[in-house]
Design brief:
The protein is α/β, with parallel strands linked by helices. It folds into two domains: 249 residues, HUPs (Rossmann fold); 220 residues, Ribosomal Protein L25, Chain P (Beta Barrel). The protein has 13 helices and 25 strands. Strand 16 and strand 17 form a beta hairpin. The longest helix is centred in the N-terminal third of the chain and has 16 residues. The protein is elongated. The structure holds adenosine-5'-triphosphate and magnesium ion. Adenosine-5'-triphosphate (ATP) binds next to helix 2 and strand 8.
C-alpha cells in the first residue's frame, strides 16, 4: 500500500534518519502498535497505527501488533478480535508478528527475580494509602518504605510466595528500588507487580500476580527487538522508568519517542467514556455510526484510505492540539467525490404533478454517473407525470434570491425538463400537500434550445417508480467543540447531541437503488454521501446511512448547540 501523502517529514523520521546514518540497530527499523484489549479502537489509535506501520513500510522495516494484556479485569477476547479486524481493515499487516504481553509472563517473572537479586527490587507491604503518603508530592521528596531494606533472601522468598498465592489481593507488591526523592514521581520506587486474583483471557488462572505497565512495556519491546518505541506524550515521564529498567537488566534497549495524541473537535477519544456510552446505551454499540471508533466509521461508510490520508495529513508533532473534525470529513469528501456514483434521492418528499404531461406516459432520461470519472458512464432514470421533490426546494412565499420553485417560477429538473409552478394544493390544516406545474417539452434533457435561462436546478424522483427506504441522517454525537467542557455539576453526557440521529423514514429514491448492495457508497445529488448499510440492508430493501454531507455544517450546529 502506498503512502497517500508522500513523504511528509516529521521529527520521528528525522530521528530515524540520523539513527540509520549512524548505523544504530544495524540499520533496522522495527516498531509496534501496542493496544490494551479493553475497548474498541478509535481514530486516535488509527493515528498511532498509521504512524507505526507507516514508518515500517517507508523504511522497509517491520511493525508488530502486540496486545498489552496485563489488566485481566478489563480485557476481553471480543476486544482482541475487533482490534485485529480494525488494523487489517485500515490496510496494515503484522504478518506473523502477532504478540501478547501475556506470552512473556514467565520471562517477566524471571527478570523481576533478576532485579531482586541485584538488590534493585523489593517486596513492600505498605497499604495503598500509606504508599501514596510515602510517595511525596511534586514539591516534596518521598520517604523510604520501611520494607525497602529487606534482604535479597527475604524478597526472593516473599515474591515466590506472592506468585504461589499465599497472600490476599493487594497485601504486598513488588517495587523497583530507585530513588524516593527523585524529581520525577514515577521514579519513586514504582510498583512492578501486584497480587490480583482475576481470570486472564489467555492465561486463565495460572497467575495471581500481574506485572504493571511500566515493567511489561519496556521488556516486551526489548524481547521483540523493537528499535523505536513510539507512544503518546503522557508517557514522557515513564521514559525514565523505561530506560532505568532496561539499563539495570542489561537487555536490548529500544528508544522511546513520544508524540502528541490526536484530539478531534466534537469528539471524545477516551476508551473509558466510549465504554460508558456503549454500556449506558447512549449509542447502539461500539460500531454505532456516530462513534469515533474505527468500527463506527466503517459502519458509517468512511473508507480506510480516507482515514489513512487524514492521519498522514495531520502529521506528527510534539505539542498537543485539537484537530477540527472538518479536516477528517474533507478527506472522505475528497475521496468519495472521485469514486461515488451520483444518484437522485428525495429525503423529505413533496409531490409535484405536471399537469400538461400526458397521463401514463413514461420517458427514460440520461443521467451521468460521475462527472469526475468519465469511465463511470451514464444510466437511465424514469420520468413521469408525478414526481417528488425536496419539500424545502419549494416555498409558497419565498424571500429574495430564492432560486428554487415557487408560484410562477421556472426551474430545471436535473436531466429532465424545465417546469413552472402554477398551483399549490393544501389540506384542511393549511399544509402544502402537492404542487402543480407545467413543463416545457422543448427543454428535454434540461436545456432550452432557445437559450432561455433558469437559475435553479433541483433533483427529483418519479413517484410511481420510486423506491421508499429509510435514510439515517447522522450528525455529531456532541454539540460542543470540547465535549468535556460542561456546566457545574454536569458531565460530558450533558453535551450529547439529541439530534445526532434523525431518520428520513419515507425517503424516495430513484429505482436503480432498489438493488443497492450493502456496503455501496453513493452521492445523493445535492445532499451528501450515503452508504447502503451493511447490517440492515436486505435484498430489494436497502437502508442508507449518511456518511457526510456535501459541505460542513458546523455553523448550524454551534448555533443550535445549547
Ligand atoms: P485510552 O486512554 O482512551 O484508554 P490508551 O492510550 O490507553 O487509550 P491503548 O490501547 O493503550 O489505549 O493505546 C494503544 C496505542 O495507541 C498507544 O501507543 C497509545 O499511545 C496510542 N493512542 C491512544 N490514543 C491515542 C490518540 N488519541 N492519538 C494517538 N495515539 C493514541
Ligand atoms: Mg494505554
Amino acid at each position: 500500500m502506498e503512502n497517500n501523502e508522500k513523504n511528509i517529514s516529521n521529527f520521528i523520521r528525522d530521528i530515524i534518519d540520523v539513527d540509520l546514518e549512524k548505523g544504530k540497530n544495524g540499520g533496522r527499523v522495527h516498531t509496534r502498535f501496542p493496544p490494551e484489549p479493553n475497548g474498541y479502537l478509535h481514530i486516535g489509535h488509527a493515528k498511532s497505527i498509521c504512524l507505526n506501520f507507516g514508518l515500517a513500510r517507508d523504511y522497509k522495516g517491520l511493525c508488530n501488533l502486540r496486545f498489552d494484556d496485563t489488566n485481566p479485569e478489563k480485557e476481553e477476547v471480543e476486544y482482541v478480535e475487533s482490534i485485529k479486524e480494525d488494523v487489517k481493515w485500515l490496510g496494515f499487516d503484522w504478518e506473523t508478528r502477532l504478540y501478547f504481553a501475556s506470552d512473556y509472563f514467565e520471562k517477566l517473572y524471571d527478570l523481576a527475580v533478576k532485579l531482586i537479586q541485584k538488590e534493585k527490587a523489593y517486596v513492600c507491604d505498605l497499604a495503598a494509602d500509606e504508599t501514596r503518603e510515602y510517595r511525596g508530592t511534586l514539591t516534596e521528596p518521598g520517604k523510604n518504605s520501611p520494607f525497602r531494606s529487606r534482604t535479597v533472601d527475604e524478597n526472593m522468598d516473599l515474591f515466590r510466595r506472592m506468585r504461589e498465592g499465599e497472600f490476599p489481593d493487594g497485601m504486598r507488591v513488588l517495587r523497583a528500588k530507585i530513588d524516593m526523592a527523585h524529581p520525577i514521581i514515577v521514579m519513586r520506587d514504582p510498583v512492578l507487580y501486584r497480587i490480583r486474583r482475576a481470570t486472564h483471557h489467555r492465561t486463565g488462572d495460572k497467575w495471581c500476580i500481574y506485572p504493571m505497565y511500566d515493567f511489561t512495556h519496556c521488556i516486551s519491546d526489548s524481547i521483540e527487538g523493537i528499535t523505536h518505541s513510539i507512544c503518546t506524550l503522557e508517557f514522557e515521564n515513564n521514559r525514565s522508568v523505561y530506560d532505568w529498567l532496561l539499563d539495570e537488566l542489561g537487555v536490548h534497549h529500544p528508544q522511546q519517542i513520544e508524540f502528541a495524541r490526536l484530539n478531534l473537535s466534537h469528539t471524545l477519544l477516551s476508551k473509558r467514556k466510549l465504554l460508558q456510552l456503549v454500556n449506558e446505551k447512549h449509542v447502539s454499540g461500539w460500531d454505532d455510526p456516530r462513534m469515533p471508533t474505527i468500527s463506527g466509521f466503517r459502519r458509517r461508510g468512511y473508507t480506510p484510505s480516507a482515514i489513512r490520508t487524514f492521519c498522514e495529513r495531520i502529521g506528527v508533532a510534539k505539542m498537543n492540539s485539537v484537530i477540527d473534525l472538518v479536516v477528517l470529513e474533507n478527506c472522505i469528501r475528497e475521496e468519495l467525490n472521485k469514486t461515488a456514483l451520483r444518484v437522485m434521492a428525495v429525503l423529505d418528499p413533496l409531490k409535484v404533478v405536471i399537469t400538461n404531461y400526458p397521463e401514463g406516459k413514461e420517458e427514460e432520461m440520461d443521467a451521468v454517473n460521475n462527472p469526475e470519472d468519465p469511465r463511470a458512464g451514464s444510466r437511465k432514470v424514469p420520468f413521469s407525470r408525478e414526481i417528488y421533490i425536496e419539500r424545502d426546494d419549494f416555498m409558497e412565499d419565498p424571500p429574495k434570491k430564492y432560486f428554487r420553485l415557487f408560484p410562477g417560477a421556472e426551474v430545471r429538473l436535473r436531466y429532465a425538463y424545465f417546469i413552472t409552478c402554477t398551483e399549490v394544493v393544501k389540506n384542511s390544516s393549511g399544509e402544502i400537500i402537492e404542487v402543480r406545474c407545467t413543463y416545457d417539452p422543448l427543454t428535454r434533457g434540461g436545456d432550452s434550445p432557445s437559450g432561455r435561462k433558469v437559475k435553479g436546478t433541483i433533483h427529483w424522483v418519479s413517484a410511481k417508480h420510486a423506491v421508499t427506504a429509510p435514510v439515517r441522517l447522522y450528525d455529531n454525537l456532541f454539540v460542543k467543540r470540547d465535549p468535556n467542557e460542561t456546566d457545574d455539576g454536569k458531565d460530558f453526557l450533558s453535551n450529547l447531541n439529541t439530534g445526532s440521529l434523525l431518520t428520513a423514514e419515507g425517503a424516495k429514491l430513484e429505482p436503480s437503488l432498489s438493488g443497492a448492495k450493502g456496503g455501496t457508497r453513493y452521492q445523493f445529488e445535492r445532499l451528501g454521501y450515503f452508504l447502503a448499510d451493511t447490517k440492515d440492508s436486505k435484498a430489494g430493501s436497502p437502508v442508507f446511512n449518511r456518511i457526510v454531507s456535501l459541505r460542513d455544517t458546523w455553523g448550524k450546529i454551534e448555533k443550535s448547540g445549547k
